[in-house]
Amino acid sequence: MKRDHYEVLGVDRSAGEQEIKKAYRKLARQYHPDVNQGDKGAEEKFKEVTDAYDVLNDPEKRARYDQFGHAGVDPGQGGGFGDVGGFGDIFDMFFGGGGGGRRGGPQRGADLRYAMSLTFEEAVFGVEKEIQIPRDETCLDCQGSGAAPGTHPTTCSQCHGSGQVKVLQRTPFGQIQTSRTCPTCQGEGRTISSPCSTCHGQGKVRKVKTIKVSIPRGSDDGLNLRLSGDGEAGAKGGPSGDLYIVLQVKRHKFFEREGNDIYCEIPVTFVQAALGAEIDVPTLDGVVKMKIPEGTQTATVFRLKGHGVPHRRGNGRGDQHVRTVLTTPTKLNEKQKKLLREFGEVTPEHQQMGKKSLFEKFRENLRDAMG
To answer: Which residues make Cβ contacts (< 8 Å) with residue 241, sequence separation at least 6?
Structure first.
């Protein structure tokens, strides 16, 4: 499992650009393969710190990493050992050069994240909602090329489309030939003489799109729904990113949920519990009648089969578990108090308790232990 990039460089998540660069420079010098020849461990460390710096030194990649972690960073853009961009950073640190490969090829658009708030019932039974997402979309006037209609980008005359120019340098390690980003095309490998007036040569425009999202029944808090292709537009003909809908389900005032089962508490009176009764119980489907037998104790749990949360995949539903809570009457009048005293006088304690008291159990256990 990959370590956290901030942990690799030994910096806080709030670290600034210079602090990140300083930490990277120190670790890169320490683990550089030319300084640790034949040391596979140092080579792996060098790969790790270079990859971390490649992400955290790029504001866009860092923002995606902070939001989605490793999953939010396109692996193809990483700066691993052997990657042109990664070595470019090293040479930039040591020798004043700048690395970088051609950026003119198709690039996948960034993924987007949207936090959607739902009521308990909406998550349970499913719902369709409309959301508005601000995002980059391919410019229709230039079809994403960045060039004005009727014109086309041309191959860069300095780098001949590679996006790089080669430079020979003398270093403490000997003469090294490095590749730098072409200053004419900025690594794109092409130039645009007549930029599109709509997107100003970017190939993308900012728009707000309305998207219909179907929330499946049985959804739960924290569920991620991926809408393929509804993220930011790609560059140079690359595919669009994805849109991730993160569900935030509000708590219910009465029900609690565990998986596909729901739980609730229902108050019952002393008379109902002692004599048995048919009581009304709220469910997700409305109020239903539930029988409780005579002699029901407090905290007894009854099951209403099939009144829970629908399964997200397949048919069927969970159950509802109803916990009875015996209520004690208050503000009794004299007649009520007299009747209760009479009940207490004619009813043994163990019958009033409904089961053996703790004192009786202790006394029996003590008698058994003494033989």
So the answer is: 108, 109, 110, 111, 112, 229, 231, 232, 234
Nearest CA to 56 out of 103, 7, 10, 6 is that of 6
pLDDT, tens digit, for every residue of 250-286?
Answer: 999 999 999 999 999 999 998 999 899 999 999 999 9
Beta bridge partners of 281: 288
Reported as a single tens digit per residue, the pLDDT across 198-233 is: 998 888 899 999 999 999 999 999 898 999 999 998
How deeply is 205 buried, as exposed, middle or buried, from its count of CB atoms within 10 A (0-12, 13-18, 19+)? middle
Q: Which of 238, 234, 220, 20 lies closest to 125 in space, CA to CA?
A: 220
> Three-state DSSP class for 205?
strand
Q: How far apart, in Å, are the Cα atoms of 113 and each of 36, 109, 126, 242, 266?
A: 42, 13, 20, 9, 40
List, in sequence order, every residue forming a beta bridge with 132; answer none if it has no partner: 210
Nearest to 8 by CA among 64, 70, 68, 60: 70
CA-CA-CA-CA dihedral for 213, 217, 222, 227, to nearest 10 = -30
Residue 333 burial by Cβ neighbours in a 10 Å radius (0-12, 13-18, 19+): exposed
Structure tokens at 100: 């970088």
Helix (H) or strand (E) run with residue 283 in it:
strand 277-283
pTM over 0.70: no
Segment (H or E) for 214: strand 204-215
Distance CA 126, CA 282 (A): 20
Bridge partners of 174, per DSSP, are: 171
How many Å from the N-terminal Cα to the C-terminal Cα in the chain? 61
Residue 239 to residue 93: CA distance in whole angstroms: 34
- Measured at the CA of 280, the angle between CA 278 and CA 282, to 5 degrees, comes to 150
